[in-house]
Design goal:
By secondary structure, the chain is of the alpha+beta class. The protein has a domain of about 80 residues: Pantoate--beta-alanine Ligase, Chain: A,domain 2. Helices cover about 30% and strands about 20% of the residues. The protein contains 2 helices and 4 strands; from the N terminus they run ααββββ.
Amino acid sequence: MIVFSRPPMKVRPSFARRSGLRACATKPLRRRRREGGSGGFTLLEVLVAFTVLAISLGVLFEIFSTGMRASRSAEEYTRATLLAESKLAAIGIEHALEEGETTGAFGDGYNWRVAVRPYRLDGSEEEGPPPPIEAYEVVVTVAWGEGSSERSVSLTTLRLKSGATAGPGTGPAP
């Protein structure tokens, strides 16, 4: 009868203590190096590192670019709002408060349009004498850009004007 014997199993000492097995002398596990090798990175590791770096930089540049575009857009909207506010403040002071529509340009790519129309409450078509004060709806629109990238800001307010037939002593008492 032939009996085959196995060589003793190599067990690390720490595992042997926990499991109750007999430990043998073992060599610590080490990475084998090629003879005469410098121990540096392989070509594959370098290529993977460059790929990760390129993707990361691409994402960072896109985030930076999006932030710059948003900043420029916010600046344009702020400038347009300030221009619209200044035009709105001039209505009734520098320009007469009369029904109609006027347009113009500020000069640096921003165009404006002012629309003035009488303000009427729903169902306020009353017969009788005109009121001593008339309300007008004033809409100022500032636009910039061209084609599909045209943007605009509109501001709307109500302005009051003395009625044409109002004379001294016909208004409200002080």
